[in-house]
Amino acid sequence: MIWLTWRQFRTPVLATGGLLLVLLAGMALTWTQVTDAALNAGFTGCQGADACASAADTFLSALRYGQAKPVYYGGLATLVVLPAVVGIFWGAPLVARELETGTYRMVFSQSIGRGRWLLVKLLGGGLAAALGAGLVSLALGRWAHLIDAANGERILPTTFPARGVVPIGYAALAFVLGVTAGLLLRRTLTAMAVTLVVITGLQLAAPLLVRPLLVTPTSTLTALDPKARMGMSYSMETKELRLEPMPEERDGWLLSTTVVTPAGTEFVGPADSTKCGPEAPNERLTCPEWLAAQHLSTKVTYIPDAKFWVLQWREFGLLVVLAMALSIFSVWWIRRRLA
Amino acid sequence: MIEFHLDSRSGVAPYMQLIQQVRHALRLGVLTEGDKLPTVKEVVARVAINPNTVSKAYRELEYEGLVTARPGLGTFVTRTLGADSLSRHEPLRRDLERWLAEAREAGLDDESIEALFLSAFRTFSEARA
Amino acid sequence: MTSALTATGLTKKYGRRTALADCTLDIPAGHVVGLVGPNGAGKSTLLLLACGLLDPTAGRIDVLGERPVSGSPRVGFVAQDTPVYAGLTVAEHLRMGAHLNPSWDSQLAEERIAQVGLDPAQKAGKLSGGQRAQLALTVAAAKRPELLLLDEPVAALDPLARRTFLQGLMELAATGMSIVMSSHLVADLERVCDHLIVLVASKVRVAGDVDDLLASHHRLAGPRRDPADLGAGRTVVEESHTGKQSTLVVRSTAPIDDPSWQVDRLDLEDIVLAYMSGAAGSGRVLEGQR
Predict the structure, then answer these.
(1) Which chains neighbour C (Cβ–Cβ under 8 Å, 3 or more pairs)?
(2) Domain extents for chain A?
(3) What is the reported pTM?
(4) Which residues have C-beta within 8 Å of that of residue C102, sequence separation ≥ 6?
(5) Closest CA to B42 of B99, B4, B9
(6) Cβ–Cβ under 8 Å, residues C180 and C150
(7) How many CB atoms lie within 10 A of CB C247?
(8) Architecture of the B14-77 domain
(9) Residues B66-80 pLDDT 10s
(10) Out of C174, C194, C268, whose CB is closest to B44?
(11) β-strand pairing of A297-304 with A241-245
């Protein structure tokens, strides 16, 4: 069974593996470029926050014109696209093609149970997907660790799914998703399309909905400076006043910046229309004064970079649990419900 | 050794066709005492026929005493058919030819002659049975 | 007589469509059994149920005395249109068989491949229909099942390929394998099957040994009359009448001695067709007899 799994898998696996190898080769070729640039910029071994910040800027701008930049973004893109590739080209055809071409009738009349057949294929494909994703993520993490330290972006939604252990989870889940879609829909093309939609949905939903629930975001309160630049929107009818302060830099992933009252609730007015708003005669002067009297604060909610690994492992765990649940479901389905 | 063939449009059961072919060969002297019949496997491989059918035909022939099966060796012819009656064929054939000439003179065409012969033959056989 | 397959009230529905309704039959072991009937009679469904690729909606089916499960080493199956893996070579199919079947007979497999002249290095997707059928048969046979089920194995083959295929099948039958094959073509069954079951609309119309069926069916032609007058022990399978003449297909164990009938033999195809059209036409239902 292991032989058959390999024999049927080898073409897509080798094709995917080839693409990953190109990326790995790109990293190997630019490895010294990155470390040299960090060294020359004084970022390696820098002391003190300010010195490091300026060394980081020098380091990052030095990389802007080398070959390291396409490798950096190529790696990012690869790990973001890999789950979809694995789901569509490895997972979706796995059962659907057997059902479509009728070969399931041949292989299921060999002396092997349907459940075991699927289990071996799920394990083989899932492990291969996990291994490939893990290897690339590991290499990319090592290759880019200086860049990540310099730009502090590894916790951002754009970089997060291409670092650490999460890519392993996505690749494995995407594979199982593809298999399950093929099993239920029985058509390769339909299964591929549905797999693509679901995986993309998952990748979008993770940062928007799931990740802020996996760790408690950190919040900071600072007194609002009424004279600072900020966006204001005022409603004539309800006298509702909304303030949008400029986002503040934080070492992490900024979720929201809101203005809150001393009671801790979001500030929405109502504003004194004689001081603020278009009806106030001297708004430029009176409005900041009035706002200062409200004792407002800016509340910044973010996930700090320090929680990177906690978040990685929690999201990974969630993905693995999902993948296992789907696997169990599809094995049950092929044994009981395929008929 | 004889070769079997099957006529699937005859309505005669395949095992019966095999028996008839052996009898025919015995009657014509193609097979004689001591000759070996092809094995079931050989017949199966040659004519794409059900092996049970071949076995059944051989069993029937054995029951009639025409052949005997020697385990491990094969099936052998034990006696010939109609060696004594072979000499009677010629006069009978002459009688039949005379009858055919009469029928033709009476104005019967080939088909009518055949139908007449078959119906008479069938009535005769059924009466005997 | 032991049974290769028994079904009682067997029913399979796909959603609201019924593929097999209340089917009851008993297929003896140790035979080459032909399962014939028109398209849509439920033959494929019955065979898929028998090898555990489908589960019945209602009723019961036993194969070699057990409930069928796919993956049983005791039952081999050659599916309709003889599916093979287009991307795998002939040799790789055998390798797959060897990996997936503990009882794999690699000598039988290789001999058969050589005998039918298949190139082991050939991709299965490039094989002709006949070669593909031979490959599928080899894979099914080399696991040495006690019972081999074939679903319309020769339907798509040209006459020569059909003959070669059946020849190979008969050589397997000679090794003692029980065989059940479905077909809607009757022409070849007479020589290869020794037992026949005619299935029309999920019902067994007639079942029996081929020799008995041939011996007991007659076509009667004679002056017009009511077929009910035929007497005991005779069943009318099919009848057609003109103003003056009646033509009947009759099942009778005793010889027909009424001289006013012209009695003719029927070949197996005629008998099967009589049961199929008789079922559609007169509505006279015959119980399956053994």
Answers:
(1) A, B
(2) 2-215+306-336, 225-295
(3) 0.83
(4) A111, C73
(5) B4
(6) yes
(7) 16
(8) Orthogonal Bundle (1.10)
(9) 899 888 888 999 887
(10) C174
(11) unpaired
Contact residues on chain C for A1, CB-CB shorter than 8 A: 99-100
Please indicate whether residue A144 or residue B125 has the higher confidence score (pLDDT). Answer: A144
Closest by CA to A120, choosing from A102, A94, A92, A85, is A94
Query: In the block, which residue shows the tokens 């052998």?
Result: B76
- What is the pLDDT, as a whole number, of residue C1? 55
Task: Tell if the CB–CB gap between A102 and C92 is shorter than 8 Å.
Answer: no
Q: Give, as one character, the DSSP assignment of residue A87.
A: I
Mean pLDDT of chain C: 86
CATH placement of domain C3-201: 3.40.50.300
**Which pair of structure tokens corresponds to residue B4?**
């079997």
Tokens of A172: 């494995």
- CA gap C142, C126 in Å, rounded: 22
Cβ-based contacts of B41 with chain C (< 8 Å): 171, 174
C138, C113 contact by CB (below 8 A): yes
Q: A interface mutation test: which of C47, C63, C70 has the most A CBs within 10 A?
A: C70
Using a CB-CB cut-off of 8 Å, the residues of chain C touching B121 are none
Distance CA(A81)–CA(A87), nearest Å, equals: 10
pLDDT confidence of residue A136: 94
> Which residue type does C141 have?
A
- At residue A277, the pLDDT reads 72
Chains contacting chain A through 3 or more C-beta pairs under 8 A: C
Q: What is the mean pLDDT of residues A19-29?
A: 93
CA distance C35 to C44: 10
Q: How confident is the model at residue B83 (pLDDT cuts 50, 70, 90)?
A: low
Give the residue among C3, C59, C52, C55 at the shortest CA–CA distance from C29: C3
The number of beta carbons lying within 10 Å of the beta carbon of residue A278 is: 8
The total number of residues written for chain B in this structure = 129
Count CB-CB contacts under 10 A for residue B93.
Answer: 10
- Range A134-155 burial, b when 16+ CB lie within 10 A, else e: bbbbebbbebbebbbbbbbbbb
CA distances from B106 to B95, B111, B120 (A): 17, 14, 17
Among A193-202, A205-214, B51-60, the range with the most confident prediction by mean pLDDT is A193-202
d(CA B32, CA B26): 6
Q: How far apart are CA A291 and CA A293, in angstroms?
A: 5
| Residue C79: both structure tokens together | 């599916």
Please give the average per-residue pLDDT across C108-119, as a whole number.
91
Per the structure block, which two tokens stand in for A47? 């002391």
